[in-house]
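2024-03-11 09:14:02 INFO receiving multi-entity request
2024-03-11 09:14:02 INFO entity count = two
2024-03-11 09:14:03 INFO echoing inputs for audit
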Amino acid sequence: MAATADLRAAALRSERWRRTLRRRITPWVAALATASATIGAVTWAGSVIPGASSAGRRGPTAQTPAAAAWLKSQSRVLQLQQRIDSDERQIAHLAGSPLPALPAAPAVHATTGASGVAVP
Amino acid sequence: MLSPDVTPVEVSAHSRAMASSVTIRILPRADRAAVERALAHALTVFDDVEASCTRFVPTSPLMRANAAPDCWHKVPLPCFHALAEAYRAYLLTQGRFDPRVLGDLTRLGYDRSLPFGSGPVRTRVGAPLRRKPLPTWLPRFRRAQHTVLLGGRGVDLGGIGKGLAVRWASELLRRVGTDHLVEAGGDCYCAGRSPEGDPWRVGVEDPFGGNAPVAVLELSDRACATSSIRLRHWEVAGAQVHHLVDPRTGLPGGSGLRAVTVIDRDPAVAEVWSKTLFLEGLEAVGSFSNRRGLAALWIADDGTLGASRAMSRYVAWQRA
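2024-03-11 09:21:47 INFO inference complete, emitting structure
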């Protein structure tokens, strides 16, 4: 029972943490998405409108300050996403895999074994 | 025999029957007198089953029927129902559980209650030989008269008798308390909840004789039974044999296994499947139990622990 309770508590903690993380980063991701779309649009405009960008190159690979910021933000989002994925994998592991062995057996009410195979 | 137990509400009773200690624990939902009557009645069930179904007393109703298996015999009610349930188990397992192994057990020298657990046991019989498969079992039952015709061969109810006694005892107890535990050696039924309010915890004995269990199961309204060769093995013509005989060969079966534990809603069914799975041997026990959806846990000769998919939800703890 202790093992099950511990596992259930661990799973709940992980789930709670995952939800908190998701709640915290969702507005962040939305803001970043808006920003990246804006930066992308500006960068794209810079690549096609002569003089609008210092490099005049196409797409987010252009090493403008805006493009660098966009790449940095994408990297941060990716890290957060990886953390969420890892946590979800851990939850799935707890739910689907055999229970890990505990150091000592819990107290029992009865025993099943050889003494039970006597012939009437 | 009856004593107030650890918690103020719990009542327990102990007895010895069928070569096992019998323990009943109950959280009563009726007055004390009714509970005491039900407990006494439940313990009597074990004595009744033993008296009518033993194969070690030549004058028991079962052995009288075994003496002339092609004749009709009137038998006491527990024996009649036990024979009918044994036949049902034979059909359920498609002949893998077959109580007609009585002749094989006798041939192996297990014709009396051997002193298991008190040192090496030797018998003076010839080397065990493989025999031809048995013909289909076709016993006949007349319910109104409680008469049976065993059909050709004597039977041994050792593979189901105790599970049935646990079932019938639990049915009697249900009237006075839905939360109870009936334990008879390896067979037990866990009804409702334990005194702590959690499922009942049942330890699976180490078949190598260790003090600590190999696993702990959490059960509520479930039965569990274990077939193990830890105690009941002996020597025949220099070879080690045990009491779990494969009806297909007439020889001890279960190659590579030490013990198999099965969980089921019914104690008799759990007992039947534990023996049947044991006889499948280490190679087939996993695939067979998974195919059938049986909750089974087994311990191999090398001490490794295995479990079917359906067992995982009952395992609260297992040895590292």
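2024-03-11 09:21:48 INFO post-check: Chain B is about 30% helix and 30% strand.
2024-03-11 09:21:48 INFO post-check: The first strand of chain B starts at residue 2 and ends at 4.
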